[in-house]
Structure to design on (230 residues):
């Protein structure tokens, strides 16, 4: 009888936590300028980078999820001004792309614009190194995970087992808990600032595209049509 009650509690907890909406704040930290100076990067270039950081404002992004699938995208800026400088934070947070994850169908991809058409690009699974290091993000205890696929292993995720779903912002997923904070290559930070759980009727619209490409096919397509190719 105790086993049945425990199973029901665990099941109801999973159902409760397997649907919700996460709001992330995305910020641009910028590179380590002391390292750039040591590499003798021209001062003019460093000044341009500093200006880009000043012009780049924090943006918000949403992650919608249920027990089957998730969808991540950057929230539309209602104060959009076509004359203002490029916001690199928005560009690297995902810009107009939509990131979709479906564990039932093993379908992981993002929707992006290529040569005037919408394409779907597959997202390969990420190799993570799990650690026992912890910290609190909001009211949740989070564990540190290191992306072994990232250059110099500088992309760090903080996930919570208290919300046992394997989703996260952008292309980052596959951990034994929801990613509440992500430090992408030391330059960008995604932080969950609003966590809404047990929301009814979460609607996730699966992105559509002209065709689906592998990550390698997408790289070749971009390279082939680059104006800077030799």
């Amino acid at each position: 009888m105790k086993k049945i009650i425990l199973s029901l509690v665990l099941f109801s907890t999973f159902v409760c936590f397997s649907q919700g909406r996460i709001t992330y704040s995305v910020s641009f930290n910028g590179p380590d300028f002391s390292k750039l100076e040591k590499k003798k990067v021209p001062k003019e270039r460093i000044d341009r980078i500093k200006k880009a950081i000043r012009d780049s404002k924090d943006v918000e992004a949403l992650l919608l999820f249920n027990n089957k699938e998730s969808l991540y995208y950057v929230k539309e800026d209602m104060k959009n001004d076509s004359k203002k400088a490029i916001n690199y934070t928005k560009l690297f947070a995902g810009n107009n792309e939509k990131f979709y994850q479906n564990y039932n169908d093993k379908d992981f991809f993002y929707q992006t614009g290529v040569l005037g058409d919408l394409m779907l690009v597959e997202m390969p699974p990420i190799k993570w190194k799990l650690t026992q290091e912890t910290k609190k993000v909001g009211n949740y205890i989070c564990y540190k995970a290191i992306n072994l696929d990232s250059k110099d292993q500088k992309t760090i995720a903080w996930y919570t087992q208290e919300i046992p779903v394997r989703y996260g912002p952008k292309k980052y997923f596959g951990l034994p808990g929801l990613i509440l904070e992500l430090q992408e290559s030391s330059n960008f930070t995604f932080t969950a600032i609003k966590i809404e759980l047990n929301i009814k009727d979460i609607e996730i619209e699966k992105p559509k595209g002209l065709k689906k490409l592998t990550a390698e096919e997408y790289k070749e397509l971009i390279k082939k049509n680059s104006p800077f190719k030799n």
